[in-house]
């Protein structure tokens, strides 16, 4: 992470997929918030691109409707003056001449091409950008995840994109790396003398990473059904979180110093394949249930295909085969329509070697450091203390609790706000390098193959629950339980 100057040089940001879900829910709101903070130079342009036949006014009206709930109408209208639209089909030549003329190929001007479309379109879009010389100078391309659906397709995409944009121009986004707590993990680990000496298999019992959503698949079924939870969340976001927890101290915060260390972790992950996937992984799919107080349909009904075998839940036990982490399990779980929306990393330390307290004092509990990514970003350290007052020695397990919002009195910027400006500034630290994406696919591929070869359907779970009971069994077999902060 470099220092964040408040200003950035003027830029054009083209969002391919400008009418899509991600653009409306995340990218445009993030840009609007940067506009409010005066980080969108007045000459900068945001250009939405998709096939829908719209003009600037039509696109602005569409965005106005989507964004009005989160903002002041006057400021929104001011922001929308910097927003434009060009209809294009990534796969057809029509319209590209006009588009290229509108953007201009001035090499010293920052141009960001954000590919917020299905990865199948990445190659077509990049080839056309190259054809018009829009890849020159300060041009950058942002690739949304997942990049491909396996190692081969990721290689094909990366090769083709690499023919047009070099690696320094290519920003593979994983928005989890832009979340405040994830960046704070680096500071917590490497800015405090307290943790690093304990950050290894001698002192850490196990690590849990949970990304639980209450939402269902919604209208993203066409994409999601081809992906599933392992491709959608584990191959990218969750492995990146695991890397941030497990990596060795980088020599500096230079982009490649951090990414080299993450890559070593990915290379050290022990394989999960047909031989052990049955013991180490659980796939699930939600059925009808009650989520956040309302009755909701099951995945098949929501999708309109009751026969789908796509998983909406994954739990797995990963191990990192290196000196620091030998024998320390990393339990990962993620799913849609779970009981609560919560993303967190829980690091549980080993018990003290010998208890000096008698049974009447209560039992000792292992220390646990919980990094909460959302909601209520913050850090909690669970400690054992003495219950205050007379009445004998009674042990209590309590959190040292820091909510970032309470401590700093400001709400945290969305991950995309930070990452979009990092692209404009040309800072790739929080983006994935090609070899990281490939290493992640190399590990995830055999799991997908094992599931497909087994022919087993995902285990059903009720919407609003914590997933299939097999997920509980996965961790309980090792004498542990999933962390629940509400306990
Ligand atoms: N939505 C989310 O929460 C997240 C999404 N992502 C990733 O972001 C990407 C986009 O996702 P999302 O916004 O949900 O997808 P959507 O299906 O909502 O949007 C797809 C967009 O691509 C456009 N598009 C489709 N075909 C073409 C074409 N041939 N030429 C030009 N534009 C085209 C569509 O418009 P039109 O049909 O009019 O052309 C639409 O604007 C995906 O890779 C997804 O995995 C990543 C993280 C989160
Ligand atoms: O990338 C994705 O992430 C979202 C979850 O992101 P969050 O910031 O809201 O936690 C997930 O819903 C989506 O399926 C996936 O593509």
Description:
This protein is globular. It is α/β, with parallel strands linked by helices. It has a nine-stranded mixed β-sheet with strand order 16-15-14-13-7-12-11-8-17, with helices on both faces. The two termini are 35 Å apart. It has two domains: 11-172, NAD(P)-binding Rossmann-like Domain (Rossmann fold, 3-Layer(aba) Sandwich), CATH 3.40.50; 177-476, 2-Layer Sandwich (Dihydrodipicolinate Reductase, domain 2). Helix 6 (151-164) links the parallel strand 5 (139-143) and strand 6 (170-172). The chain has helices spanning 21-36, 56-67, 73-80, 96-103, 122-131, 151-164, 180-190, 221-246, 255-268, 277-280, 299-303, 404-408, 415-425, 434-454, 469-476; strands at 11-16, 45-50, 83-87, 110-115, 139-143, 170-172, 204-212, 281-287, 289-291, 294-296, 313-319, 329-335, 342-349, 368-374, 378-386, 395-403, 459-462. Helix content is 36%, strand content 21%. Bound molecules: NADPH dihydro-nicotinamide-adenine-dinucleotide phosphate and ligand LXAUTJHC. NADPH dihydro-nicotinamide-adenine-dinucleotide phosphate (NDP) binds at residues 16-23, 50-52, 88-91, 116-119, 121, 144-145, 220, 223.
Give me the side-by-side strand order of the main sheet: 16-15-14-13-7-12-11-8-17
Overall pLDDT level: 93
Instruction: Count every beta strand, where a strand is a DSSP E run of 2 or more residues.
Output: 17
Which small-molecule species are bound to the chains here? NADPH dihydro-nicotinamide-adenine-dinucleotide phosphate, the ligand O=C1O[C@H](COP(=O)(O)O)[C@@H](O)[C@H](O)[C@H]1O
**What is the level-2 CATH architecture name of the largest domain?**
2-Layer Sandwich
Count of distinct structural domains:
2
Please identify which CATH superfamily of the largest domain we are dealing with.
Dihydrodipicolinate Reductase, domain 2
Q: And the CATH topology of the largest domain? A: Dihydrodipicolinate Reductase, domain 2
Shape: globular
Which percent range fits the helix content? 25-40%
Low-pLDDT residue spans: 1-5
Helix count from the secondary structure assignment: 15
Largest sheet: 9 strands, mixed
The secondary structure category is alpha/beta
Distance linking N and C termini: 35 Å
